[in-house]
Amino acid sequence: MTLEPRPGILDIRPYKPGAADAPGIANPVKLSSNENPLGCSPKAREAFEAAAKSLNLYPDGGAVKLRAAIAEMTGLEADRIVCGTGSDELLQLLGRSYLGPGDKVVQSQYGFLVYRLVAMQSGAELVSAPETDYRASVDAILEAAGDDAKIVFLANPNNPTGTYLPGDEIRRLHAGLPSTTLLVLDEAYAEYVDEADYETGVDLARNHDNVVVTRTFSKIHGLAALRLGWAYADRSIIDVLNRVRGPFNVNAPAIAAGTAAIRDTEFQRRSAEHNREQLAFLRQQLGGLGLDVTPSVGNFVLVHFPDTDGKRATDADAFLTSRGLILRPVAAYGIPHALRLTAGTAVQNRAVVNALAEFLKA
To answer: Where N6-(pyridoxal phosphate)lysine occurs, residue numbers (predicted)?
Structure first.
């Protein structure tokens, strides 16, 4: 007799991280995972090293100091914050808490792949709402959600497109959803955005009991290796998440590093400034090569390639990889003609541009 998992589990295709290796290349340039090219805050590194002296001790199960630091720096209430091993864990905890077999989950057409995993892990049905020019459509999401969606996931800004919805559209989306639908706003890239009409969803979450905002330390804070994130929501939701998370789900070095990182506003400022400069460079240079680049407010760009023999995205990916430049194919998102390029250092970005110029002329 073969032990069988719950129905639907074997239908799940495991999440595939961005590649890190290029065959035959000793030190490839990894621009496939939207990591911070400046590294992390020196203060966070020092805090991590200090915490490593006490690895024999259990961490604080409530991440009290980290939540207090987040509250201090964001103006939020510490008792309405829960921390997790990356925002990915928090998204999965929401699925475990609020989804069951047959429930409806809605995302935008090119939503983050983890939303599909969350739905499938719970046996829920995932519905993707069509986007317009790689931008989420509130009307399409509301139509897909109807009056019976349990969760609506929306990344704002979105990965892998880099597009966003302004604050008035987010409010219109929430207003159009029934009170029984949970709106989850995934703001992993929010700290990079400086558009005047962009708004974080924390005010919605503060004033309504069916909104959750998630953030991560993996992007602007440069702590991807530590797997650290947090969520802000009504106390009733935080209470539920605290009941289903592991008792020590965040490790002590991550708590220490995250506490230092959230307070290092100078490192965050430098990271955001570097990103603005490099996004502008990539848009200008890649556009000059004749490539279409979706406008992005994240720390990456989506680069589209022609449907021409020898010049497709798969060809470009192979060419770049052979030169030790690793980008992220996004066929799994339904965009087979594009590659996602993390905005790296100035030297790395120039290397990609030069290589693509050679590729397109070949």
So the answer is: 219
Contact residues for 248 (Cβ-Cβ < 8 A; gap 6+):
58, 59, 61
* DSSP states of 305-348: --SSTTTSHHHHHHHHHHTTEE-EE-GGGT-TTEEEEE---HHH
Is 29 a residue whose pLDDT tops 80? yes
CATH 3.90.470.20 fits 9-39+266-361, yes or no: no
3-state SS record for 192-231: HCCCCCCCCCHHHHHHCCCEEEEEECCCCCCCHHHCCEEE
Question: pTM (2 decimals)?
Answer: 0.96
CATH class of the 42-264 domain in this structure? alpha beta
List the helix and strand counts (H, then E) for the chain.
12, 13
At 236, the amino acid letter reads: S
**Residue ranges, CATH 3.90.1150.10, the chain:** 9-39+266-361
Summarize the confidence of residues 139-149 as an average pLDDT.
98
State how far the Cα of 61 lies from the Cα of 44, in Å rounded to an integer.
20
Report the C-alpha gap between 174 and 181 in whole angstroms.
9
